[in-house]
Amino acid sequence: MTATEDQFRNNPLGKDVTLDDVFDAFEFLDDWEERYAYIIDLGKQLPAFPDNERTEENYVHGCQSQVWLTHFQDECDSKLYLMIDSDAMIVRGLAAIILVALNGKTPRDLLTTDIDELFERLDLFRHISPTRGNGLRAMVGKIRDIAAQQVA
Amino acid sequence: MTDLSMANASARSPLDVTTIRQDFPILAQQVNGKPLVYLDNGASAQKPAAVLDAMERYYREMHSNVHRGAHTLGDRATSAFEGARETVRNYLNAASTREIIWTRGTTEAINLVANGLTAQLGAGDEILISHMEHHANIVPWQMLAQRSGATLKVIAITPEGELDLDSFEQQLSERTKVLALTHVSNALGTINPVAELVARAKAAGAITLLDGAQAVPHFRPDVQALDCDFYAFSAHKLFGPTGIGVLYGREQRLEALPPYQFGGEMIERVTFEKSTWNALPYKFEAGTPAIAEAVGLGAAINYLNGLDRAAVEAAEHALISRAHELADSVPGMAIIGTARNKAAVMSFKIDGLHPSDIGTLLDQQGIAIRTGHHCAMPLMDFYGVPGTARASFAFYNTLDEVEQLFTALRKIQRLFV
């Protein structure tokens, strides 16, 4: 079975956990250990990724860790719902932040969201910069490609 | 690292690491608010001021093209450039500077040989490599096998990360035309008994190549004692600049290889009908070479020659021994590569942590290591891991830095509880 519509819609990231929550948390947590513990914790909130979605098509290349990404689009309001998986905990946490920012948005809204700026504000930009081989950038690129296809 | 060198070292005064660290300006900085602990020397080593100064001085005072100028600067540049070649010859104990070829690095050196051997190999011939090779010592041979119809054979390794000598003996035969082995494994640190294996391969009639990229930073190879036909290394891992490396080749073997690239410098005479080649080593050095980088490599070797190498080896041995000791005290931590004879390299995994998590969270604490497959995917497959975390030490690292690595690792583990 592929991921069900409910699995996509019930993702707490972007729904129960909002960007404001993330910013508040980062403001409150003042050393790197607490921030990374929070990032790791966010990663644990990624919904279980269905095994049969681990396909070549859903694989995000260019990562040290294994990263999968799948999506579902609501036919009525055209909003995009995403699921991401990784075997690395920090990558999972950073992916969760990306989902908080992008999940459940229309392709147009999604494409106008500036993820780089978000990561700058969180002082996490180096993780998403092109110099890091962790695949975050490839992940964001793939999400934007999916959105761009829906807009075109 | 031989027992003999250790015995010698213990009789000498220990390495003065505090003073040595002042020779490496890059080390005195903070990363993420913490003093930099650089443990990624296997990927690339840092440069002493002597190297930086030599390169700058070359550009300020003597730069010109080499082997061409009818002028003073040309003479100075050529003399600095050829002086560096002599320094390398001496370092490797090669018989002649004709046997020292400048390349862009180890990778290009191996490609040069593998390309040049195409006409010498055919169906039924075999190329023997090992399971612990870097991709740079796998793929050029794989391509040579495809071009020539030869077969690629692989020496098995033991779980400890040593070459399986039975597997070597079983696969070595008169069909073996090439033996290409790493002297020291980049991912495991294993020091292979290459002299013995080269001797066996030579008796079987094979051409032998050693990948010395990870060996030269730790000890000085003697190509005549090793008796190999080719030996390759990169300057940047030997505390020298990027963009240059060395292929040592036994003169008769180099003579038997066709040129690798064509252009200026490598020719003797050119007409539109035909060209003839320059003598060794220039036959393999088409185009204007990396002159400043050659000078920088010469300066790096001179710097190393000024150190007590036995004390250097003893200091590195102390670092890796302490790291192994401390690793035993970390629950869930396993060292990958526990060969009896190994260089100061520690590949490891920790239960529940992805190597990239370890790398990211060590960086947060100012500690630089390498994570990933180390360009040795078949080896990672053998150990059933997606990659490892690797701390690789140089003589400028301190025992205190080893302690800091483990303090940081324990902190990371607590984050995941």
Automatic annotation (TrEMBL), chain A:
InterPro entries to which the protein is assigned, alphabetical: Fe-S_metab-assoc_dom
Pfam families per UniProt: SufE
Superkingdom of the organism of origin: Bacteria
Domain spans labelled Fe-S metabolism associated: 24-145
Span of the signal peptide: none
Coiled coil region boundaries: none
Similarity comment: Belongs to the SufE family.
PANTHER family from the UniProt entry: SUFE-LIKE PROTEIN 2, CHLOROPLASTIC (PTHR43597:SF5), SULFUR ACCEPTOR PROTEIN CSDE (PTHR43597)
Protein name: Cysteine desulfuration protein SufE
Protein source organism: Marinobacter mobilis
From TrEMBL, chain B:
UniProt cross-references to Pfam families, sorted A to Z: Aminotran_5
Domain Aminotransferase class V: 37-405
Entry-linked InterPro entries: Aminotrans_V_dom, Aminotrans_V_PyrdxlP_BS, Cys_dSase_SufS, PyrdxlP-dep_Trfase, PyrdxlP-dep_Trfase_major, PyrdxlP-dep_Trfase_small
Catalytic activity, EC: 2.8.1.7
GO biological process: cysteine metabolic process
Family, as annotated: Belongs to the class-V pyridoxal-phosphate-dependent aminotransferase family. Csd subfamily.
This protein's name: Cysteine desulfurase
Lineage: Bacteria, Pseudomonadati, Pseudomonadota, Gammaproteobacteria, Pseudomonadales
